[in-house]
Design a protein that fits this description.
This protein has helices spanning 16-19, 38-48, 73-78, 83-86, 91-95, 101-104, 135-145, 221-224, 239-248, 253-264, 282-285, 296-299, 311-315, 366-376, 433-440, and strands spanning 26-35, 66-71, 126-132, 155-165, 228-237, 332-338, 355-362, 401-404, 411-415, 420-430. It is of the alpha+beta class. Strand 8 (401-404) and strand 9 (411-415) form a beta hairpin. Helix 2 (38-48) runs antiparallel to helix 15. The protein has a 4-stranded antiparallel β-sheet.
Length: 444
Amino acid sequence: MSAPTHVTLELDDIQRGVLSPRPTPYAATYLVFRIDDRTQGRELLRRASAAPTSAADTSSPLEDTWVSVAVTYWGLQALGVPRSSLESFAWEFRQGMAARARALRDEGDRSPQHWEAPLGTRDVHAVITAIAPDPPRLEGAIDRGRPAYERLSGATAIWRQDCYALPTEKEHFGYLDGVSHPAVEGSGIPGSNELEVPLKSGEFVLGYPDEIGGVEVPQPAVLGRNGSYAVFRKLRQDVAAFRRYLRDNSGGPEDEELIAAKIMGRWRSGAPLALAPQHDDPALGADPHRRNTFLYEQDDLKGFTMPGSCHIRRANPCDASVAGEVRLHRMIRRGAVYGPPLPEGVLEDHGADRGLMFAFIGAHLGRQFEFVQSQWMNDGVFFGAGDTKDPVVGAADREAGYTTPRRPVRRRLAPLPWFAVTRGGEYCFLPSLSALRWLGDLHD
């Protein structure tokens, strides 16, 4: 890996949504557009280029309200980006998420044929995301962006997803969410684990050296530099099934919470098992300076406290040498819930659609998002657990039970059902602010 260096990122050209953490609490909206007329599609991008703030604008009068603009491969094609330029983008991006379903283990009930239309189709061309601390300011941000696409008959809004993060910061299964993020060299934004060395900026922003010294940038440089790839995924959560699983496999309420912690690797307060092995510690979970300050090989090498197959250990093995060079697979991950919460204690779901909208940011789709999804989430070989899957978002093995190490005898629970099912998603490119203007000014 490359040694630490001083990197100057061109923050005033990078969309704020690439590097800046989201506010707490917040509301968000995803708007998907189809471009039917190339000229009007370019006009959409030209107008939209005025909406995003930059990563340097952290003291904007809009405070924690901002807009991000992304395009898919099919969107770049619809805008008339030259073939030579299209071919310089990552090949996973050029295929799109639906075509990568087998590698991502989006099969069976999770396969693209069951996705929510139009996700996963060639009609998804541009994605505008608005973020604000609350719904009123979110609607204000959407209203400000509305002139970018109104009265453009050749650029049509075809899908919308509203989502939010509660003041509790918890998702539908009850876990504190968004507690871990990497530090990026040159960003000026600290990471969540003070023991982790900042990652090279080229792992997240195109046009800069990455962890192995390479520089990835689609051509021409005015289009690719200071951009990034973004993955968004909609996952439906079966909260009632999750609650029934905990009840049916436990010896009581305290044991339910222990099982929930063993599945996630954290108590639902956010406190990690590595630092609170016996009982929940809400004060620890609420402390951003302490709740991530642990290392697996240093604090729990054998996984007796935090099982090797638990969700957070799979998603970010930190210093675990068995998982290979972990720094090559780190991503910026953000999530927001959608749909109404299932009331506390309810064990039957009456059909309401609820779940998570995930966003992943990185410069290497293959070795970041796809590797983590296919290998760490859906293959246990890295963790000495055979072919077991991640217990939360993996492609559930309905025959194998979930096992947690324990002395003198390990504990084996019932097979895990699918608690989270893919309902759609896409691979996107987040252009720089100058690239958005370049796309808007394209000519045949």
